[in-house]
Design goal:
The complex is a heterodimer of chains A (about 120) and B (about 575). With about 120 residues, chain A is an alpha+beta fold. Chain A is built from 4 helices and 5 strands, in the order αβααβββαβ. Chain A has a 5-stranded mixed sheet with strand order 2-1-3-4-5. In chain A, helix 3 packs across helix 4. The model of chain A has no long low-confidence stretch (mean pLDDT about 85). Chain B is α/β, with parallel strands linked by helices and about 575 residues long. Chain B folds into 5 domains: about 90 residues, 3-Layer(aba) Sandwich (Glutaredoxin), CATH 3.40.30; about 210 residues, NADH-ubiquinone oxidoreductase 51kDa subunit (Rossmann fold, 3-Layer(aba) Sandwich), CATH 3.40.50.11540; about 80 residues, Ubiquitin-like (UB roll); about 90 residues, de novo design (two linked rop proteins) (Up-down Bundle); about 55 residues, Alpha-Beta Plaits. Chain B has 21 helices and 17 strands. In chain B, the strands form 5 sheets. In chain B, strands 10-9-13-11-12 form a 5-stranded mixed sheet. Chain B has a 4-stranded mixed sheet with strand order 2-1-3-4, with helices on one face. Chain B has a 4-stranded parallel sheet with strand order 7-6-5-8, with helices on both faces. In chain B, strand 6, helix 9 and strand 7 form a beta-alpha-beta unit. The longest helix of chain B is centred in the last third of the chain and has 20 residues. Chain B is flat, with a radius of gyration of 28 Å. The model of chain B has no long low-confidence stretch (mean pLDDT about 90). The chains are: A alpha+beta (about 120), B alpha/beta (about 575). Chains A and B meet through helix 1, helix 2, strand 2 and strand 5 of A and strand 2, helix 3, helix 4, helix 7 and helix 9 of B.
């Protein structure tokens, strides 16, 4: 990566975080990993590929809700951002099939719903 | 693509069975169907919506209306008002300001910790750019002074003063060190920050280096945090590649390097002088202060040592201004504090709260209350250097001064919630045992005093204590506080002292009545078989490791107290609750 100039930093800050498109974030800190986030992450990657879904699977740090790890945050156009907790392989697949493909929320694993992106 | 469908979330905010929520869900779904709204609405069961102890909650999106304490009879009214119409049902409406403020954890869980681009996109390294393009070191320290930030490692020393003294000290070289040797039992705030947002700590360290005139910084991380070490290593590499570390940062004259040093897991190395000795390659033992590290630290050069959380606050303060930071918190304790909430609480995890919030709010409003709704007994803060705060002090606002008044400390941020099943003597024994094990042995008060206190506590827990022991404990504790070389020894007696202060009665019960009301102290327990409940199945007889259960199916079975080792196996295996534990 090239050395940055002060201007580069300004423009990168102005551009902000790229949150376009549909994405899924998996909490991959020690608390998440211990609860099985690694498996959830690879399941999401494989199953999304299998289903040809246009969704970015990303990693992130600890959100603080360690009791509900592994945590998976889902951003999907037309729906509020949802944080699913205690996600296992089956729930991960449900998230892809229901939340991303069918645009309906998955029962019983929702731990937080964020409305900020909804106008 | 914005759908017009309303989303209705249903959640049970009590800790009751999920089946009840399913019934509630079914009747809600039926009423929606009856009113012909099933295509306009999607109904979802949520596990948690951040509200606790308020019955059934209903949240309607996209408007974000929240109702609590909803009964089945209210469903119709809610559907008419807020699903069909644009109104609300006033009497059930719930609104509350969020209790958490995220400054230190601003990026944790938001960005990919392994991507410097995402960090910069969230205004990262903007603070570094800001100081390098127009703030002199004195200006940076002035901004820190305005913020009122105090060290988050435990003692709460004002960060700006530490920086100012180090800046003013004479020395051809100066150093900054990030203390990431987090070792309190039950505390993991620093680990989460390093794993979730390593660049914010690195940026804070570079700014500290600029402010005090250092050219070199060390991150002292404990080796038990492999993932944190890996991510920090990666982040430092990225920062070098981008020219944010190394020579002539962002094209200016300022040069700064960072290296990682791993701690081998000694608790005492979190003490600053021991930490310095450890980096120098010596045995990690503290030395007397003064001279303070700000005068003579690493390799006898002026050194500023800051905790991970302190440094993570720095970029925010520089970007947003010290005045804005100082709006949060109390008069003497500014900003937020991250706590690792653990123990018998429903939602254990990390919370970041403004200073001045009460313990009750943390445990009940954020933590969701006690596990299994058992009554709360106490909250332990500050780890092995802290104390136990009893239930009647739960409404005290949390800041450095108040916690100290209560005989505890802020510490690094461990917060362990206890219920009636926790024995106070056992807890004191645990923390003191930790300090005895971790004592480096250099000074006598800590080495000998801790050991003697632990012996006394063991005696009390085994039923061989006397009432004089309580006075002896107090005397030894005082000697340790006064005469120990470093904070480890000076504070090691805190858990014992604070429990003696608030729970002396429980100590006395152990000594006088030889009873442990929480059934934790094994030596004070007796097991017996309740003949009325016993079905004479012999499961306990088979499982007893010392053959202490005698008798036969005709006469019944009895536990021979002289043989019993109180392992509790019979209690565990009995299917008829026929074993009594007293």
């Amino acid at each position: 990566m090239a050395k940055l100039t002060p201007k580069d930093i300004d423009s990168k800050i102005a551009a902000g975080l790229d949150e376009s498109g549909d994405w899924i974030k998996v909490g991959m800190s020690t608390c998440g990993m211990a609860a099985g986030a690694g498996e959830v992450f690879s399941t999401l990657q494989q199953e999304a590929k299998k289903r040809n879904l246009e969704v970015r699977i990303k990693k992130c740090g600890c959100q603080g809700m360690c009791y509900a790890e592994p945590l998976v945050e889902v951003h999907c156009a037309g729906l509020p951002d949802v944080v699913y907790g205690r996600v296992d392989k089956e729930t991960a697949i449900k998230i892809l099939e229901k939340h991303i493909s069918a645009k309906t929320l998955v029962n019983d694993n929702i731990y937080e719903v964020r409305t900020r992106r909804q106008a | 693509m914005e759908t017009d469908r309303k989303i209705i979330l249903l959640a049970d905010t009590e800790q009751s069975q999920q089946d009840k929520l399913r019934d509630f869900y079914t009747s809600f779904a039926n009423q929606i169907k009856d009113k012909g709204l099933e295509d306009a609405v999607s109904l979802v069961r949520a596990s948690d919506i951040g509200i606790y102890g308020k019955g059934f909650a209903v949240k309607i999106l996209p408007r974000g209306i929240v109702y609590t304490g909803v009964k089945e009879s209210d469903i119709g009214a809610i559907i008419d008002a807020s699903v069909k119409g644009q109104g609300t049902v006033e009497r059930l409406l719930f609104s509350e300001e969020p209790k958490q403020i995220r400054i230190v954890l601003r990026n944790c869980g938001v960005i990919d910790p392994e991507s410097i681009d995402e960090y910069i996109a969230c205004r990262g390294y903007g603070a570094l750019k800001k100081i390098l393009s127009g703030m002199n070191p004195a200006g940076v320290i002035e901004e820190m002074k305005k913020s009122g930030l105090r060290g988050r490692g435990g003692a709460g020393y004002p960060t700006w003063m530490k920086w100012k003294f180090t800046r003013e000290s004479q020395g051809d070289r100066k150093y900054v060190i990030c203390n990431a040797d987090e070792g309190d039992p039950g505390a993991y705030m620093d680990r989460s920050v390093l794993e979730g947002d390593p660049h914010s700590v690195i940026e804070g360290l570079i700014i500290a280096g600029y402010a005090i005139g250092a050219g070199m910084g060390y991150m002292y991380i404990r080796a038990e945090y492999p993932l944190a070490v890996e991510r920090v290593k990666k982040a430092i590499g990225q920062a070098y590649e981008c020219g944010l570390l190394g020579k002539n940062i962002l094209g200016t004259d300022f040069s700064f390097d960072i290296d990682i040093r791993l701690g081998a897991g000694a608790f005492v190395c979190g003490e600053e002088t021991a930490l310095i000795a450890s980096i120098e390659g010596k045995r990690g033992t503290p030395r007397p202060r003064p001279p303070y590290p700000s005068v003579s630290g690493l390799w006898c050069k002026p050194t500023a040592i800051n905790n991970v959380e302190t440094l993570a606050n720095v970029p925010y303060i520089i970007m947003e201004g010290g005045d804005k930071f100082a709006l949060i918190g109390t008069e003497k304790s500014k900003g937020t504090k991250v706590f690792a909430l653990t123990g018998k609480v429903r939602n254990s995890g990390l919370v970041e709260v403004p200073m001045g919030i009460t313990l009750r709010e943390i445990v009940f409003d954020i933590g969701g209350g006690m596990l299994g709704d058992k009554p709360i007994k106490a909250v332990q803060t500050g780890g092995p250097s802290g104390g136990v705060i009893p239930v009647d002090q739960l409404d005290t606002p949390v800041d450095y001064e108040n916690l100290q008044k209560l005989g505890s400390i802020m510490g690094s941020g461990g917060m362990i919630v206890m219920d009636e099943s926790d024995c106070i003597v056992d807890i004191a024994k645990f923390y003191l045992g930790f300090c005895v094990e971790e004592s480096c042995g250099k000074c006598a008060p800590c080495r000998i005093g801790g050991y003697q206190m632990l012996n006394l506590l063991n005696g009390i827990a085994e039923g061989s204590g006397s009432l004089e022991d309580l006075d002896k404990l107090r005397r030894v504790a005082l000697a340790m506080q006064r005469a120990s070389l470093c904070a480890l020894g000076q504070t090691a007696a805190n858990p014992v002292m604070s429990t003696l202060r608030y729970f002396e009665q429980e100590y006395r019960e152990h000594i006088v009545n030889r009873k442990c009301r929480s059934h934790k102290c094994r030596s004070l327990m007796t097991y017996s078989i309740i003949q009325d409940k016993c079905k004479r199945c012999r499961v306990c007889v088979i499982n007893c490791p010392v053959n202490a259960i005698e008798g036969d199916r005709e006469k019944g079975f009895f536990i021979d107290v002289s043989k019993c080792v109180k392992c509790g196996k019979c209690f565990e295996v009995c299917k008829f609750q026929a074993i009594a534990k007293e």
